[in-house]
Design goal:
Number of strands: 4
Number of helices: 16
Pfam families: Wzy_C
Distance between the termini: 13 Å
Largest sheet: 2 strands, antiparallel
InterPro entries: O-antigen_ligase-rel_domated, WaaL-like
Number of domains: 2
Mean pLDDT: 81
Structural class: mainly alpha
Helix content: 55-70%
Membrane topology: Multi-pass membrane protein
Strand content: under 5%
Keywords: Ligase, Membrane, Transmembrane, Transmembrane helix
Shape: globular
GO molecular function: ligase activity
Length: about 475
């Protein structure tokens, strides 16, 4: 299915599925009228304006469902970096995303597009629930399994909004900017002196670091994306700088390793970018050397504190991993349910190894084996193959000088960084893994219409989009 031309812009069939029901002028008129009615109602009774504003928001979401994706990703970027949320915002945001996309499709009389990997993901989530029930740990693992199943529906909703090359670009933009905004708040808190390292005030530095590492590569790809306006490329270059600064300043060794391995993957796979990577590394080192005299005392104190804490953390993690792997050997097929390690730690150690090791073993892959057994691990490996395979494929298909080529080249390093950083944290029920899957599935929908057509000719040719 090819795209059609709307004005001066080519729209793919994926974009047309959720194109606005009403054009700009009628939408503006309805919005202005609704705001006027709300203002009159508020003059008499302030609460009376709320239903009008609620209906207006619902109309705008249904008419422009594409806004749901950046809104949802923004919540993910800020959930750990802003203190004082009145309620946990991630689940309401996921519900709004899923319900909004479902309603938008219903009013357009469209069925959702579902990739077979979505079904594998839902099977994985259901299996984690079964594993907890079978092992008698359902009270500990049930809430995590339900969160996983909820992630499955969120991924289906994101898939409707991120199909095709433009959809992939929008997903990468949303991911990049959401984490960059989070990094801004991390820096503000750090500069205020409230923290000694660049860590989110409402979450774990390692959890946030997984997404920072992935967002760094996506931001770098967007900053080099020739199909974007120069102003946008500058914005994403700043975002890449923010992500790199927070990654380094977090003193998270998992995040450091993720960035290093991601850069190595990019350096090995994409020869055309090697000089750029070497030059970027030289500039980063020069800036670090220039800043060192001003921050030397604070950095020295922080490193001393980090070294003291890190020694205990490493020992406790290794003890927890050994225990989880030993228990996996006792029940290898089904596992014990994710997030159910706490009683085992208490039973095997007079003092649990580190206060932080409470519900998880702080290693996504050990948790996967211990919590879901061979069956759950097999399902996860299928999903991992999709993430890596589709990202690698698109990076090779879209070469230099092709619209989307730079972003495509950033996908595999971002996915690899996510995998590497997850060695020291358990991310099975958190956003990073499944956003990597969203990137892989989106990459799988891109079907270039013309082989390696350079700019500006390619911008005048409609792309071909197909479902995987």
């Amino acid at each position: 299915m090819t795209g059609i031309q709307s004005g001066k812009t080519w729209l793919t069939d994926s974009e047309l599925r959720l194109a606005p029901l009403l054009s700009g002028k009628p939408t503006l008129a309805i919005s202005a009228g609704s705001l006027g009615v709300a203002a009159i109602a508020a003059f008499f009774t302030p609460l009376a304006a709320l239903p009008v504003l609620g209906l207006l928001a619902l109309f705008l979401i249904v008419n422009y469902p594409a806004v749901l994706m950046p809104g949802y990703l923004l919540v993910i970027g800020l959930v750990w970096t802003l203190p004082g949320w009145p309620i946990a915002p991630l689940k309401p945001a996921a519900l709004l995303l899923t319900a909004g996309v479902a309603l938008a499709l219903f009013l357009r009389v469209k069925l959702p597009r579902i990739h077979w990997a979505h079904l594998v993901f839902l099977a994985f989530g259901i299996w984690t629930l079964i594993a907890g029930e079978v092992s008698g740990n359902s009270e500990l693992s049930r809430s995590y399994s339900i969160s996983l199943i909820g992630w499955g529906f969120s991924l289906i909703a994101l898939y409707q909004l991120s199909s095709g090359k433009r959809g992939l670009l929008n997903l990468a933009k949303s991911y990049s900017l959401s984490i960059a905004f989070g990094c801004v708040f991390v820096l503000l808190v750090y500069l205020s002196g409230r923290t000694t390292v660049m860590t989110p005030v409402a979450g774990d530095v390692n959890d946030f670091g997984v997404m920072v590492a992935a967002a760094f590569f996506l931001s770098l790809g967007l900053a080099r994306e020739r199909s974007l306006p120069r102003s946008q490329r500058i914005v994403f270059l700043v975002a890449a700088g923010l992500c790199l600064l927070v990654a380094v300043g977090s003193l998270s060794r998992g995040t450091w390793l993720a960035v290093a391995v991601g850069l190595a993957v990019h350096f090995i796979l994409y020869r055309r970018d090697r000089l750029m990577l070497i030059g970027g590394a030289a500039v980063a080192m020069l800036l670090a050397l220039l800043a060192l005299p001003f921050l030397n005392e604070r950095i020295t104190q922080t490193l001393q504190q980090k070294q003291y804490i890190a020694a205990e953390n490493v020992d406790s993690r290794i003890l927890a991993w050994r225990l989880a792997l030993r228990l996996f050997g006792e029940q290898p097929l089904t596992g014990f349910g994710i997030g159910s390690i706490q009683p085992k730690l208490t039973a095997n150690f007079s003092s649990p190894p580190g206060d932080f090791v409470v519900s998880f073993v702080h290693n996504s892959y050990v948790e996967l084996l211990y919590g879901t057994g061979l069956i759950g691990t097999g399902l996860f490996l299928v999903l991992a193959a999709v993430m890596v395979g589709q990202s690698f494929r698109l990076g090779r298909v879209l070469g230099p000088g092709v619209a989307g080529g730079s972003v495509a080249a950033s996908l595999l390093p971002a996915v690899v960084a996510t995998f590497v950083a997850s060695f020291t944290v358990t991310e099975l029920t958190y956003p990073p893994f499944w956003l990597a899957l969203a990137l892989g599935l989106s990459a799988g929908t891109v079907r270039p219409a013309v082989d390696e057509v350079p700019f500006p000719e390619r911008e005048r040719i409609p792309e071909r989009v197909g479902d995987s």
